[in-house]
Structures are given as C-alpha cells and as structure tokens.
Amino acid sequence: MSTEYVLVTGGAGYIGTHAVVELLQAGYNVVVVDNLVNASMESIGRVEEITGKKVPSHQVDLLDKEAVKKIFQQYKISLVMHFAGLKAVGESVQLPLLYYHTNVGGTVNLLEVMKEFSVKNIIFSSSATVYGAPQYLPVDEKHPTGSCTNAYGKTKFFIEEIIRDVCAADKEWNAVILRYFNPVGAHKSGKIGENPQGVPNNLMPFVAQVAVGRRECLTVFGSDYDTPDGTGVRDYIHIVDLAQGHVAAMKKIQEKCGCVVYNLGTGVGYSVLDMVKAFQKATGKEIPYKIAPRREGDIATVYADPKTAEQELGWKTTRSLEEMCEDLWRWQSNNPHGYAPAPSSS
Ligand code: NAD
Ligand code: UDP
C-alpha cells in the first residue's frame, strides 16, 4: 500500500511549522503546500533539523486549483490540515476583497479538490474572533458566532459555515474546526517561531522585538478597560500546546466525528501589563511601554472555556506563561531577524 500523507496548507507559517513538527513526531507523514506570501521555505528546513525527517514541500497557491490537484495526484492524502490564509485584521478592513478571495476562495477550491479526490477529512484553523464581543465568559463553543466586525474574522465565520454545510450534505465528511485563542511562544529548540513581516500587529511579537532592540517602545492600546489593571485581557496559549491540539484532533477525525468544533485555549486571561511583566521576569529584559488610546475594534476581555476539548479530545494545555515567554525569547534572541539574515548596514 502506498504511503498516506497529511496535507498541511500554510505549513511554512507560524502555526503550520509547529504543527508539522508535532505531526512528524507523532509518526504521521506530512506534505506541505504554501504560496510563501507570509513565509519562507527556510522554516521547513528548520523543521527538518528539529525532527531529522524530510518534509516534501511545494510552493502552491490555493487559488491555483490545477496546482492543488497536482498535489492530490502526486500524494495519497488522507486528511488536510488547513492553515493557509491571510490573517492581518487591519489589512482585512482595508482590503476586504483580498481577504474573501484568498481565505474563502482558497478554501472552496481546496474543498472542491478534496471532494474530487474523495479526501473527506479536514482540520481547520478558525479563531476566537468568530465570537465577537463575548456575551458571557468564559466563552464556550455554544456561544453565538458571526458578530465580528472585521473582514478577517468574517472569513473565518463563513469558512466554518461552508465546512458545516459540506459535512451536512455528505456524511462521509469529517471536520474538526479549532478556534484558537492567542497563540504565543515558540518551539523549545529556538529554531522555529513567529516571523512577522513589517511592524507586528500582535502583542507578544512586538514585545519580543522591543527586547531584541528592533523597536524602541511598546504601545499599550488602552488602559481604561473594565479589567483589573485597565488593559485588555486575552487567553494566551503556548504554540506547542496549540500544535498538540491538532494531533489530538487527528485522532478525533479517525473516530469519524462528523463536524465538531473546539476551543483551543488555556481558560485563563492575562492583561497586556501581566504579559509585559511576565516577559520581563522570564527574560530579564526591560520593556519600555507607553499608554495610548484603545485600538479600534478591540474588546476588553476574552478567554476560553477549554473543557470540551479536554473531555472530547483528551487534550489540555500544560505550558505556563513563563515558558511562553522564555521560549519566545529563545527564538527571538537566536533569530533577531526571524528567518531572514540580518540586513547589511552598507
Ligand atoms: P502565517 O501567516 O504564519 O501562516 C499562514 C500561511 O499561509 C503562510 O505561510 C502563508 O504564506 C500561507 N498562505 C497564505 N495565503 C495562501 C494561499 N492562497 N495559498 C497557499 N498558502 C497561503 O499565520 P499563522 O499565525 O501560522 O496562522 C495559521 C492559520 O491560523 C491562519 O489561517 C490564521 O488565520 C489562523 N489563526 C491564527 C491566529 C494567530 O494568532 N496566529 C489566531 C487564530 C487563527
Ligand atoms: N496590544 C497592545 N499593543 C500592541 C499589540 C496589542 O496593547 O502593540 C493589546 C491589544 O489591544 C489586546 C492584546 O494586546 O488587548 C492582544 O492583542 P493581539 O493583537 O496580540 O491579539 P488580539 O487582539 O487578536 O486578541
């Protein structure tokens, strides 16, 4: 019998690389497709260093359906782990059509090719953003979705609905929709991590770039929220815990689960200032910051109810806030410019 592969779309990106490491270490064969719009194949080289395994990788855009088909012809694929997409909230507000075209259009192409090749198992990267402003806390999977205001979040909501419809129409399909809270940190090796292009939008990559001297000062968006210290509260989850949630989801799919949804979070909320303090303590680096007005579209507090994932996937987070900060710093200090070489000063 020929070898079966897990196809990882967006596998050269931040979450994809960490998931590929965990999949390989759990004994799965992996093939990666990525159009490299927000990544480089250097990250896959690092995954190979960590695991000692070769990862077949192809520069493929999901919008190029013929190229996607060729991958399904070349490999015997049993399941798709679908990370590929654009993820910058602010950019999605400016360029909504780009986001709908890439995220929704790319996913529809992928699902059509999967159907054509009778590959009916998918794990999809959704986001806590589908919940919008929480009506209650902690947020469980039954919380209403679809009220988020930015185009990025809406693409996640629409894709969830599309996957649900596909599963309803054909009971052979199985889908695990994973709603991530705030993934941070890096692999223990310090070889792979988050590599934002330009100014980081997210808190912890920004903090790490201040620590390494690439930025002067953190801007804290809002200190007048109804939270213990006035700054926004989120559920930060170590990237390796998150990646391991995907391996647990693989096992769920093998039970023929139909369409199921799980939060991946810790269940604990930390404020922006908690995160700054934890990072300073774990690394000994001072993080200068200034308080600025709230960022448009931000909410005060959100954190997960992770119980369903624990009960049904047998998965829960094990890594502490301290480890998130230490591992992030190991990655950032070993790779001050991410996967790129340092820019020459001449
Ligand atoms: P990332 O940008 O590092 O990874 C996404 C990858 O997809 C990139 O390598 C990019 O080059 C690739 N890609 C983009 N468009 C593509 C296309 N048309 N065809 C093929 N490849 C394409 O982002 P990430 O943080 O690793 O996120 C992975 C997934 O998880 C995304 O779908 C994202 O929306 C979702 N997610 C991320 C977070 C987060 O905070 N990082 C939170 C919730 C959900
Ligand atoms: N944040 C901040 N400064 C930054 C980036 C983020 O104060 O440079 C705050 C933001 O307002 C929110 C928290 O940090 O309260 C997490 O923001 P992030 O963008 O990382 O995640 P998300 O908003 O998607 O939960």
Structure description:
- Belongs to the NAD(P)-dependent epimerase/dehydratase family.
- It is an enzyme of class 5 (isomerase).
- This is UDP-glucose 4-epimerase.
- Residues 7-327 form the NAD(P)-binding domain.
- This protein is of the alpha/beta class and 346 residues long.
- It folds into two domains: 4-185 and 235-264, NAD(P)-binding Rossmann-like Domain (Rossmann fold); 203-234 and 267-302 and 318-334, UDP-galactose 4-epimerase, domain 1 (Alpha-Beta Complex).
- It contains eleven helices and 13 strands.
- The chain has helices spanning 14-25, 42-51, 65-74, 89-94, 96-116, 151-169, 203-211, 239-254, 272-283, 307-313, 321-334, and strands at residues 4-9, 30-34, 57-59, 76-82, 121-127, 174-180, 182-184, 218-221, 233-234, 236-238, 259-264, 270-271, 289-292.
- A seven-stranded parallel beta sheet has the order 3-2-1-4-5-6-11, with helices on both faces. The protein has a two-stranded parallel ribbon with strand order 7-10.
- β1, α1 (14-25) and β2 form a beta-alpha-beta unit.
- The longest helix is centred in the first third of the chain and has 21 residues, at 96-116.
- Residues 9-10, 12-16, 34-39, 61-63, 83-87, 102, 106, 125, 127, 180, 182-183 line the site of nicotinamide-adenine-dinucleotide (NAD).
